[in-house]
Amino acid sequence: MKKLIIIIAATLSLNSFGQQDLMVSQYTFNHTFLNPAATGVQGFYNASLMYRKQWLQFEGAPVSQFLSIDGPVISDKMGLGLLVQNEAIGVNKQTDFFVNYSYIMDMDKIKLSFGLRGGLTMFGANYTEHVAWDTNDEILQANTTSYQPNFGFGAYLKHEKYFFSFAIPHLLSYDPTSSLTLDFENSNQAVRHYYVMGGFDLPLNDAIKMQPSILMKYAERAPAQLDVNLLFEYKQIFSIGGGYRTGDSFIALTKFQISNKFQLGYAFDITLTDIRDYSKGSHEIMLNYMFGKEVKDTPSFF
Protein backbone atom coordinates (compact mmCIF):
# COMPACT_ATOMS: atom_id res chain seq x y z
CA MET A 1 0.00 0.00 0.00
CA LYS A 2 2.86 2.40 0.83
CA LYS A 3 4.42 1.76 -2.59
CA LEU A 4 1.09 2.42 -4.26
CA ILE A 5 0.69 5.72 -2.40
CA ILE A 6 4.16 6.90 -3.42
CA ILE A 7 3.56 6.02 -7.07
CA ILE A 8 0.23 7.84 -7.04
CA ALA A 9 1.91 10.88 -5.45
CA ALA A 10 4.64 10.87 -8.09
CA THR A 11 2.04 10.66 -10.86
CA LEU A 12 0.05 13.54 -9.39
CA SER A 13 3.24 15.58 -9.17
CA LEU A 14 3.93 15.02 -12.87
CA ASN A 15 0.42 16.08 -13.75
CA SER A 16 0.63 19.17 -11.54
CA PHE A 17 3.86 20.48 -12.98
CA GLY A 18 3.39 19.19 -16.52
CA GLN A 19 5.01 16.32 -18.39
CA GLN A 20 8.71 16.56 -17.61
CA ASP A 21 11.61 15.84 -19.95
CA LEU A 22 13.02 12.34 -19.62
CA MET A 23 15.67 12.04 -16.89
CA VAL A 24 19.20 10.96 -17.83
CA SER A 25 22.40 10.89 -15.73
CA GLN A 26 25.01 10.30 -18.47
CA TYR A 27 24.43 13.54 -20.39
CA THR A 28 28.07 14.32 -19.51
CA PHE A 29 29.08 11.72 -22.12
CA ASN A 30 26.72 12.93 -24.88
CA HIS A 31 25.52 16.55 -24.81
CA THR A 32 23.12 16.13 -27.75
CA PHE A 33 20.61 14.55 -25.34
CA LEU A 34 20.02 18.03 -23.92
CA ASN A 35 21.25 20.47 -26.56
CA PRO A 36 20.76 20.31 -30.36
CA ALA A 37 23.63 22.80 -30.78
CA ALA A 38 26.10 20.06 -29.73
CA THR A 39 25.17 18.08 -32.87
CA GLY A 40 28.23 17.34 -35.01
CA VAL A 41 30.58 19.52 -32.95
CA GLN A 42 32.93 16.61 -32.14
CA GLY A 43 33.88 16.41 -35.83
CA PHE A 44 32.91 12.76 -36.34
CA TYR A 45 29.75 10.65 -36.36
CA ASN A 46 28.49 9.26 -33.10
CA ALA A 47 25.69 6.82 -32.23
CA SER A 48 24.54 6.33 -28.64
CA LEU A 49 22.22 3.76 -27.12
CA MET A 50 21.08 4.17 -23.54
CA TYR A 51 18.84 2.20 -21.19
CA ARG A 52 17.65 3.49 -17.82
CA LYS A 53 15.67 1.63 -15.16
CA GLN A 54 14.58 3.91 -12.35
CA TRP A 55 13.55 3.01 -8.80
CA LEU A 56 14.41 -0.68 -8.74
CA GLN A 57 11.84 -2.94 -7.02
CA PHE A 58 9.00 -0.56 -7.89
CA GLU A 59 6.36 -2.12 -10.11
CA GLY A 60 5.49 0.37 -12.85
CA ALA A 61 8.53 2.60 -12.18
CA PRO A 62 10.03 4.57 -15.12
CA VAL A 63 11.95 2.61 -17.76
CA SER A 64 13.63 4.64 -20.53
CA GLN A 65 15.46 3.99 -23.79
CA PHE A 66 17.41 6.55 -25.82
CA LEU A 67 18.89 6.50 -29.34
CA SER A 68 21.01 9.39 -30.61
CA ILE A 69 22.86 9.61 -33.95
CA ASP A 70 24.67 12.76 -35.07
CA GLY A 71 27.59 13.97 -37.15
CA PRO A 72 29.02 16.84 -39.19
CA VAL A 73 28.03 17.66 -42.78
CA ILE A 74 29.04 20.20 -45.46
CA SER A 75 32.73 20.52 -44.59
CA ASP A 76 32.02 20.25 -40.86
CA LYS A 77 30.18 23.58 -40.89
CA MET A 78 26.85 22.01 -39.96
CA GLY A 79 25.61 19.07 -37.94
CA LEU A 80 22.63 16.75 -38.39
CA GLY A 81 21.25 14.27 -35.93
CA LEU A 82 18.34 12.10 -34.86
CA LEU A 83 17.07 11.64 -31.31
CA VAL A 84 14.53 8.98 -30.31
CA GLN A 85 13.45 8.64 -26.69
CA ASN A 86 10.96 6.29 -25.10
CA GLU A 87 9.73 6.05 -21.53
CA ALA A 88 7.12 3.90 -19.80
CA ILE A 89 5.71 4.74 -16.35
CA GLY A 90 3.08 2.24 -15.31
CA VAL A 91 0.44 2.21 -18.06
CA ASN A 92 1.66 5.56 -19.46
CA LYS A 93 4.12 5.78 -22.35
CA GLN A 94 5.95 8.70 -23.97
CA THR A 95 7.93 8.51 -27.23
CA ASP A 96 9.88 11.42 -28.74
CA PHE A 97 11.08 11.69 -32.36
CA PHE A 98 13.29 14.71 -33.01
CA VAL A 99 15.72 15.88 -35.70
CA ASN A 100 18.66 18.05 -34.62
CA TYR A 101 20.44 20.65 -36.75
CA SER A 102 23.41 22.85 -35.86
CA TYR A 103 25.43 25.57 -37.55
CA ILE A 104 29.07 25.41 -36.43
CA MET A 105 31.55 28.29 -36.48
CA ASP A 106 35.16 27.13 -36.11
CA MET A 107 37.21 29.96 -34.60
CA ASP A 108 40.67 28.45 -34.26
CA LYS A 109 40.62 26.83 -30.78
CA ILE A 110 36.95 27.53 -30.12
CA LYS A 111 33.83 26.15 -31.79
CA LEU A 112 30.60 28.12 -31.38
CA SER A 113 27.42 26.48 -32.60
CA PHE A 114 23.71 27.22 -32.67
CA GLY A 115 21.17 24.45 -32.98
CA LEU A 116 17.52 23.73 -33.70
CA ARG A 117 15.41 20.70 -32.82
CA GLY A 118 12.04 19.78 -34.32
CA GLY A 119 9.80 16.79 -34.01
CA LEU A 120 6.91 15.09 -32.31
CA THR A 121 6.08 13.61 -28.90
CA MET A 122 3.53 10.82 -28.64
CA PHE A 123 1.75 10.11 -25.35
CA GLY A 124 -0.18 6.91 -24.76
CA ALA A 125 -1.98 5.23 -21.87
CA ASN A 126 -3.35 1.70 -21.76
CA TYR A 127 -5.77 1.84 -18.84
CA THR A 128 -6.87 -1.76 -19.45
CA GLU A 129 -3.57 -2.84 -17.82
CA HIS A 130 -4.67 -1.38 -14.46
CA VAL A 131 -5.68 -3.77 -11.72
CA ALA A 132 -8.90 -2.08 -10.61
CA TRP A 133 -11.70 -2.66 -8.17
CA ASP A 134 -14.28 -0.81 -10.29
CA THR A 135 -14.15 -2.93 -13.43
CA ASN A 136 -17.13 -1.07 -14.92
CA ASP A 137 -15.32 2.28 -15.02
CA GLU A 138 -15.26 3.32 -18.72
CA ILE A 139 -11.94 5.14 -18.32
CA LEU A 140 -10.23 1.93 -17.19
CA GLN A 141 -11.51 0.11 -20.27
CA ALA A 142 -9.92 2.42 -22.84
CA ASN A 143 -6.60 3.36 -24.42
CA THR A 144 -5.66 6.97 -25.14
CA THR A 145 -3.13 8.50 -27.53
CA SER A 146 -2.18 12.14 -28.09
CA TYR A 147 0.51 13.92 -30.14
CA GLN A 148 2.43 17.12 -29.50
CA PRO A 149 4.63 18.75 -32.16
CA ASN A 150 7.44 20.82 -30.73
CA PHE A 151 10.77 22.45 -31.46
CA GLY A 152 13.69 23.79 -29.45
CA PHE A 153 17.00 25.55 -29.77
CA GLY A 154 20.37 25.87 -28.08
CA ALA A 155 23.81 27.45 -28.11
CA TYR A 156 27.04 25.58 -27.48
CA LEU A 157 30.64 26.76 -27.02
CA LYS A 158 33.45 24.19 -27.06
CA HIS A 159 37.15 24.60 -26.37
CA GLU A 160 39.57 21.70 -26.00
CA LYS A 161 39.67 22.45 -22.26
CA TYR A 162 36.15 23.68 -21.44
CA PHE A 163 32.58 23.97 -22.71
CA PHE A 164 29.39 25.97 -22.07
CA SER A 165 25.86 25.02 -23.10
CA PHE A 166 22.42 26.63 -23.00
CA ALA A 167 19.29 24.96 -24.37
CA ILE A 168 15.51 24.95 -24.37
CA PRO A 169 14.86 21.54 -26.01
CA HIS A 170 11.06 21.99 -26.11
CA LEU A 171 10.10 25.61 -26.68
CA LEU A 172 6.35 25.21 -27.08
CA SER A 173 4.43 24.86 -23.83
CA TYR A 174 1.17 22.92 -23.55
CA ASP A 175 0.32 24.66 -20.30
CA PRO A 176 -2.64 27.06 -19.97
CA THR A 177 -0.62 29.45 -17.77
CA SER A 178 2.19 29.90 -20.34
CA SER A 179 2.61 31.67 -23.65
CA LEU A 180 3.03 29.73 -26.91
CA THR A 181 0.40 27.23 -25.72
CA LEU A 182 -1.15 24.95 -28.34
CA ASP A 183 -4.40 22.94 -28.17
CA PHE A 184 -4.20 22.48 -24.42
CA GLU A 185 -7.58 20.83 -24.02
CA ASN A 186 -6.60 17.85 -26.20
CA SER A 187 -3.00 17.55 -25.06
CA ASN A 188 -0.94 16.36 -22.12
CA GLN A 189 0.33 19.21 -19.96
CA ALA A 190 3.95 19.95 -20.89
CA VAL A 191 5.96 22.92 -19.70
CA ARG A 192 9.12 24.51 -21.01
CA HIS A 193 12.48 23.29 -19.64
CA TYR A 194 15.71 25.29 -19.50
CA TYR A 195 19.20 23.77 -19.28
CA VAL A 196 22.49 25.57 -18.54
CA MET A 197 25.61 23.40 -18.44
CA GLY A 198 29.37 23.91 -18.25
CA GLY A 199 32.58 22.06 -17.44
CA PHE A 200 36.33 21.95 -17.98
CA ASP A 201 39.39 19.69 -18.10
CA LEU A 202 42.03 20.15 -15.39
CA PRO A 203 45.16 17.98 -15.93
CA LEU A 204 46.58 16.74 -12.62
CA ASN A 205 49.55 14.96 -14.23
CA ASP A 206 50.45 13.29 -17.53
CA ALA A 207 47.95 10.49 -16.95
CA ILE A 208 45.01 11.89 -14.98
CA LYS A 209 42.55 14.70 -15.70
CA MET A 210 39.98 16.08 -13.31
CA GLN A 211 36.71 16.99 -15.04
CA PRO A 212 34.20 18.99 -12.98
CA SER A 213 30.88 19.94 -14.57
CA ILE A 214 27.57 21.45 -13.54
CA LEU A 215 24.04 21.37 -14.95
CA MET A 216 21.20 23.66 -13.90
CA LYS A 217 17.68 22.53 -14.85
CA TYR A 218 14.57 24.64 -14.54
CA ALA A 219 11.00 23.81 -15.50
CA GLU A 220 8.22 26.36 -15.28
CA ARG A 221 6.12 25.98 -12.11
CA ALA A 222 8.66 23.55 -10.61
CA PRO A 223 11.73 24.04 -8.39
CA ALA A 224 15.11 24.50 -10.08
CA GLN A 225 17.45 21.51 -9.84
CA LEU A 226 21.24 21.39 -9.88
CA ASP A 227 23.54 18.53 -10.92
CA VAL A 228 27.17 18.79 -9.78
CA ASN A 229 29.55 16.16 -11.19
CA LEU A 230 33.23 15.36 -10.76
CA LEU A 231 35.03 12.82 -12.97
CA PHE A 232 38.62 11.64 -13.06
CA GLU A 233 39.90 10.39 -16.43
CA TYR A 234 42.92 8.10 -16.73
CA LYS A 235 44.85 8.27 -20.03
CA GLN A 236 41.55 8.57 -21.94
CA ILE A 237 41.01 4.87 -21.16
CA PHE A 238 38.43 5.11 -18.41
CA SER A 239 36.69 7.70 -16.27
CA ILE A 240 35.26 7.36 -12.80
CA GLY A 241 33.51 9.78 -10.50
CA GLY A 242 30.18 10.87 -9.17
CA GLY A 243 27.65 13.60 -8.80
CA TYR A 244 24.92 15.07 -6.66
CA ARG A 245 21.43 15.98 -7.90
CA THR A 246 19.79 18.40 -5.48
CA GLY A 247 16.78 17.04 -3.69
CA ASP A 248 17.05 13.69 -5.45
CA SER A 249 20.17 11.51 -5.45
CA PHE A 250 23.89 10.82 -5.42
CA ILE A 251 25.17 9.47 -8.75
CA ALA A 252 28.08 7.09 -9.41
CA LEU A 253 29.49 7.46 -12.94
CA THR A 254 32.01 5.48 -14.96
CA LYS A 255 33.03 5.18 -18.62
CA PHE A 256 35.33 2.68 -20.33
CA GLN A 257 37.03 3.04 -23.72
CA ILE A 258 36.49 -0.47 -25.08
CA SER A 259 38.26 0.34 -28.36
CA ASN A 260 39.08 3.39 -30.46
CA LYS A 261 35.43 3.55 -31.57
CA PHE A 262 33.44 2.04 -28.69
CA GLN A 263 32.70 3.49 -25.27
CA LEU A 264 30.68 1.90 -22.48
CA GLY A 265 29.16 4.05 -19.74
CA TYR A 266 27.33 3.21 -16.54
CA ALA A 267 25.54 5.27 -13.89
CA PHE A 268 23.92 4.30 -10.62
CA ASP A 269 21.64 6.74 -8.82
CA ILE A 270 21.43 6.39 -5.04
CA THR A 271 18.04 7.81 -4.08
CA LEU A 272 17.94 10.34 -1.23
CA THR A 273 14.18 10.87 -1.04
CA ASP A 274 11.69 8.78 0.97
CA ILE A 275 11.58 6.34 -1.94
CA ARG A 276 14.94 4.97 -0.71
CA ASP A 277 13.03 2.96 1.90
CA TYR A 278 11.42 0.93 -0.90
CA SER A 279 13.93 1.06 -3.78
CA LYS A 280 17.66 0.38 -4.11
CA GLY A 281 18.24 3.09 -6.72
CA SER A 282 18.37 3.45 -10.50
CA HIS A 283 20.59 1.86 -13.17
CA GLU A 284 21.63 3.44 -16.46
CA ILE A 285 23.89 1.94 -19.16
CA MET A 286 25.09 3.56 -22.38
CA LEU A 287 27.03 2.41 -25.46
CA ASN A 288 28.70 4.94 -27.78
CA TYR A 289 29.96 4.11 -31.28
CA MET A 290 32.08 6.65 -33.21
CA PHE A 291 32.21 6.13 -36.97
CA GLY A 292 32.20 7.67 -40.45
CA LYS A 293 35.42 9.60 -40.17
CA GLU A 294 38.69 8.39 -38.71
CA VAL A 295 38.60 8.97 -34.98
CA LYS A 296 42.20 9.97 -34.34
CA ASP A 297 41.90 10.92 -30.68
CA THR A 298 39.64 9.39 -28.11
CA PRO A 299 37.19 12.15 -27.17
CA SER A 300 37.01 13.37 -23.61
CA PHE A 301 33.74 13.90 -21.77
CA PHE A 302 32.98 16.82 -24.14
Strand content: over 45%
Tell me the CATH topology.
Porin
Q: Structural class of the helices, strands and pairings?
A: mainly beta
- Write out the strand line-up for the largest beta sheet, numbering strands in chain order: 1-2-3-4-5-6-7-8-10-11-12-13-14-15
Arithmetic mean pLDDT: 83
Largest beta-sheet details: 14 strands, antiparallel, barrel
Give the topology string: H per helix, E per strand: HEEEEEEEEEEEEEEE
For CATH, the homologous superfamily is named as monomeric porin ompg
Give the tally of structural domains.
Answer: 1
* Secondary structure tally: strands: 15
The best one-word shape is globular
Going by CATH, the architecture would be Beta Barrel
Low-confidence runs of at least 5 consecutive residues: 1-19, 178-187
DSSP helix fraction: under 10%
Describe what is shown at a glance.
This protein has 302 residues and is mainly beta. 5% of the residues lie in helices and 52% in strands.
Descriptive overview:
With 302 residues, this protein is mostly beta strands. The protein has a single domain (2-291), classed as Porin. Helices cover 5% and strands 52% of the residues. It has 1 helix and 15 strands, in the order H-E-E-E-E-E-E-E-E-E-E-E-E-E-E-E. The chain has one helix spanning 2-17; strands at 45-53, 63-73, 78-89, 92-107, 110-126, 143-159, 162-168, 193-200, 202-203, 208-219, 225-234, 238-245, 249-257, 262-271, 282-291. The chain has a 14-stranded antiparallel beta barrel. The longest helix is centred in the N-terminal third of the chain and has 16 residues, at 2-17. It is globular. The protein starts with a helix and ends in an 11-residue tail after the last strand. Residues 1-19 and 178-187 have low confidence and may be disordered.
